[in-house]
UniProtKB/TrEMBL annotation:
Listed InterPro entries: FAD-bd, FAD/NAD-bd_sf, RIFMO-like
The protein's name in its UniProt record: FAD-binding protein
Stretches assigned to the FAD-binding domain: 9-197, 245-321
Organism expressing this protein natively: Histidinibacterium lentulum
Cofactor(s) demanded: FAD
Molecular function GO terms recorded: FAD binding; oxidoreductase activity, acting on paired donors, with incorporation or reduction of molecular oxygen, NAD(P)H as one donor, and incorporation of one atom of oxygen
Pfam families: FAD_binding_3 (PF01494)
Length: 372
């Protein structure tokens, strides 16, 4: 563990998947990161749930991928459906890659495994430390934090801010966070589902149901625990006949925004993960893009080329978030693509073969090069 009185190579603010992955990538390159986090404990709720092929490949050398694979569940199919009918099936296992699937695993488990791997390398997360302000200079940056011992000023030649969508560091630096917000509320339920023998629900696939009033995304975490996510008031009402809802572990309502910071670097401070970009959960790209940010940041820091970080990451993120913004039309019936697919569902199987290969690679994160 880096001592508070020792200047770290890199100060990382925020110990979500992005910050933890960045610390791991840095430690494996021989650097001495210090990582601080305002939360006293990891969240017990599963936010991100999918680890894609790109993230698994990036984490392979650290040994974390092997632990992820032993812990998670491989999801190889995605069904696009109307109630009672499958319109198209996307098979991820047709992709020529060593990880042709989405690994279904709770964010809590991903963070636990990453944090354990860091501890084995002598890097421990310092919890209960909240960033309050930042100053930059030619020598680096100073982060003012408040923790168990009161106020502290931490100097570092390089800072990575991965402190979430409401990033204190991003705001203190005056970095704009433009984008598109959606008015309608979205709902999330993690619940036990009891499937009868005749329930029309594939337990090993993700399901997207399109109905006149919106859409429902459904995926099994593991065992009988499923995630329901959608923009309709009563998610349970869309479940196929023969499906019984049991214990609800988590229920949440939220609004979606697709935003990308207008710069990822200011002086010695760089931003990553949700601090730099947020978007709808289509394609499970959020955490995975953050792990990409972490990999690129660590590689460039190791080479002394952090001046390339913004130019390498922001165009990639802008492109992916733009694609997600277009895809958001599908579950929203007030858009013309949403109206069309509901009025003429027969178009889906006709158009699907033209989009299949690109969609397969996009879902598992292989639609672009990382660049380092």
């Amino acid at each position: 563990m880096s001592s508070p009185n020792t200047t770290p190579d890199v100060l990382i603010v925020g110990a979500g998947p992005t910050g933890l992955a960045a610390a791991l990538f840095l430690a494996d390159r021989g650097h001495r990161p210090r990582i601080v986090e305002r939360a006293l404990e990891r969240s017990t709720h599963s936010k991100a749930f999918g680890v894609n092929a790109r993230s698994l490949a990036l984490l392979e050398a650290s040994g974390v991928t092997e632990r992820f694979l032993a812990n998670g569940r491989r999801m190889t199919r995605l069904h696009l459906r109307r109630p009672g009918r499958v319109l198209a099936t996307l098979r991820l296992d047709e992709v020529d890659h060593r990880y042709p699937f989405m690994l279904v695993q709770s964010q809590e488990d991903s963070e636990r495994i990453l944090e354990d791997a860091l501890a084995e390398r002598g890097v421990n997360v310092e919890r209960g430390i909240t960033a309050k302000d930042v100053e930059t200079s030619a020598e680096g940056a100073v982060i003012e934090v408040e923790g168990p011992n009161g106020m502290e000023r931490i100097a570092a030649p390089v800072v990575l801010a991965s402190d979430g969508a409401g990033s204190t560091i991003r705001k203190a630096l005056g970095i704009d966070f433009p984008g598109t917000a959606y008015d309608e509320p979205w709902r999330l339920i993690d619940a036990e589902l009891d499937l009868s023998l005749d329930a029309d629900l594939d337990p090993d696939a993700a399901q997207i149901f399109l109905v006149p009033e919106g859409g429902l995304f459904l995926v099994r975490h593991g065992g009988s625990l499923w995630r329901l996510l959608g923009n309709i008031p009563d998610l349970e009402a869309l479940l196929p006949p023969g499906t019984k809802v049991g214990e609800v572990e988590w229920r949440s309502e939220f609004h979606i925004a697709n935003r990308v910071a207008d710069r990822f670097t200011k002086g010695a401070v760089h931003i990553a993960g949700d601090a730099a970009h947020v978007h709808a959960g289509i394609g499970a790209r959020g955490m995975n893009l953050g792990i990409e940010d972490a990999h690129v940041f660590a590689a460039l820091h190791d080479r002394g080329e952090l001046d390339r970080y913004d130019a390498l990451r922001r165009p990639v993120v802008n492109r992916v978030v733009g694609q997600i913004t277009h895809a958001m039309a599908m579950p929203r019936p007030e858009t013309w693509p949403g109206r069309t697919v509901r009025a003429a569902p027969w178009l889906v199987p006709l158009a699907f073969p033209l989009l299949r290969r690109k969609a397969q690679r996009w879902v598992i994160g292989l639609d672009h090069e990382v660049g380092v």
